[in-house]
Amino acid sequence: MTDRPEVKFISDCGDSSPIEREALIRRSGLLVERHRGSSRRSIYAKIFLDSDYHTLVINLKGTFLSHQVAKDGWHVTPPQSLVYASSPAQMLAHIARGDHERLLLVWHHSESAGLSRWITEMIRERGLGNPYISPILPQHRATVELVVRACSNAGPSSEPVILGCAHELLAVVMTADHDFCCLATIPPEVPDSVAELLRQVKENPVKPWSLKDASALAGYSPFHLSRTFKALVGYGFPEFVDRSRAELAIKQLGGTDDSLDEVATATGFGSTHALRESIKEYLGLLPSELRALPQDFLF
Questions:
Q1: Nearest residue to 184 (alpha-carbon basis) of 169, 170, 205
Q2: Do 139 and 190 contact (CB within 8 A), yes or no?
Q3: pLDDT, tens digit, for every residue of 247-289?
Q4: CA dist., res. 174 & res. 184, Å (int)
Q5: What is the pLDDT of residues 188-218, one digit of tens each?
Q6: Which residue in 234, 241, 163 sits closest to 198, CA to CA?
Q7: Of 232, 190, 238, residue with least CA distance to 214
Q8: DSSP 209-259
Q9: Burial of 16 (0-12, 13-18, 19+ CB in 10 A)
């Protein structure tokens, strides 16, 4: 008989953490929890994952960073993203300010032997790190919504539905490009001309992109591009440029020792204030917090 899975959290705010954990399904081999709440300050938490379990997080609201023991750098998990962590693992999490909601799915390898073999092969062949992160793209949303409904209205079919959806979502995570922070995602259904525009922005976000230049590149009038872009992507072209710059800045903050002024200049923000405001808006964190490790709360 497989033991009941458990993910241990030790928060730096103790039992008074504003992020509440609610067990929706708990049985031998399977645990489903909902985490939600709102925090006025960022929170650090230690996470312990037991051996022989899969852990999938569906992050709906809020940002958190994860840092694996004996590894370097934070991994950024923005809203509307998926995270898979292989076990055993000890990780440090940095939960941003603001509203949070996520689903935590933990199940024993014996619940999905074929999936476990496939993941092992993927890690061996691609040399993937831990954790694995992917944005929730439009084609994944129906599956995520199915999991949310199955978790919210637990019934006889909930467990097979949740595990079936977890298979699909894990396939997405394990085959994704893991060198990313999904703030500016290129939707797969956009026309080729718009997709090419988005790729060029992401490749060179420092360029002073104007709507006029963008519309000429895409073959649209500025008015038509502005209206079409928001319908396709969910927000306007200037925000896509800003998000692309924020992605680049986040990578530089995590991978270099450059000052905030240097990062702001190198990523097209032009000022530390603009860099700080964008990252705070998208992540709920300050740029300095993307580098900080709490020495008094480490393992």
A1: 205
A2: no
A3: 999 988 877 889 999 999 999 998 999 999 999 999 988 998 8
A4: 20
A5: 778 999 999 999 999 999 999 999 999 999 9
A6: 241
A7: 238
A8: --HHHHHHHHTS-HHHHHHHHHHHHSS-HHHHHHHHHHHHHHHHHHH----
A9: exposed
